[in-house]
Amino acid sequence: MKLTSLFNTLFLVASALASDIHITKNTDTVGNSEVNYGDVTVDSGITWNLVDAEYVHFHGDFDNEGDVYVTSDSASCAVNFKISGVNTKTTNSGQIVVSSGDSFTSPVFRIGGNTFENTGKIFFGGYGKTGLPIGEITSSSFHNNGLIALYQDKRNSGLVKLGAFLGSLTNDGTVCLKNQAFSQQGRILGTGCFDIGENGNVWIKSAALSITETQNFYFSSTGGSIRVEAVSAPQTFHVSNWGGDNVIGLSLPISEFGYSEDGILTVKCGLLPFYFDIGTGYDFNKMKQVTADFGTGIGTVINGGIVYQDDAPSSSRPSICATCEDLPSAPSL
């Protein structure tokens, strides 16, 4: 038997053995180190609080209209949260919070399946001191019209992956990155926002997989960066509030750059241009080419970045960019 067939067989068996659950009243699940269910439904106005749950795996459809908290403060094992299945659907119109304390292992937040739809709020928070935290939503059909917040207390070499590999995601909401790096998997559609917070990074790995100009990349803090692979097809990226030590750069040394009256920063690697719509009001004389440190896991490029040695002319948050809220605390028992 081939390994893939064996894996699929084992998965189907595990899915069949996992019972469904419907949460209709406020529920605390405490101290269950391993939680397995098939289909999961959480009603509106209801809180499901899973405390010290180190391994939580849902094998079927997941429909949340309430508040789901999955937390662990265990020093030995971080939270491992998965929603998986071949044709499963994840729908969230409520709030999901997955949070892991400082532990010897790395937290895992992974949503797969066929369909992902979010009109609510999703938070994934962990410590970046140990190992490589995994943050992935790789559903074939991906549509975010709410808030997805991906936070760490410290940047490490872990990468956040959203959307199926070489597929597409539609973001009409806000994705928040704090001490996290987003690694592009495919096309990015929609009119949403990526909020690049403290030490956050957006890594555009293949501009040949197009990103709509209506998608906004907003620098909300310091130490953020955007890196575009210099072997990609030229296109225009919409960037807001670029200034200070936030970096716009490429994967290879920049040969020249310029700024037009209509607010376009052009960055070239050889003859290949990349365009960043940063808006008007910048002083070209305050733009400086630097060695770009894109952070752990992505690396440094000599003469590969541009910084603006002042605040952005306009720091206002674009209307499409929702406020990136702090990681919520789980309810007290």
UniProtKB/TrEMBL annotation:
InterPro entries: Hyphal-reg_cell_wall_N. This is Hyphally-regulated cell wall protein N-terminal domain-containing protein. It comes from Candida tenuis (strain ATCC 10573 / BCRC 21748 / CBS 615 / JCM 9827 / NBRC 10315 / NRRL Y-1498 / VKM Y-70). Residues 13-331 form the Hyphally-regulated cell wall protein N-terminal domain. It is found in: Secreted, Cell wall. Keywords: Cell wall, Glycoprotein, Secreted, Signal. GO terms for cellular component: fungal-type cell wall. It comes from the Eukaryota. Residues 1-18 form the signal peptide.
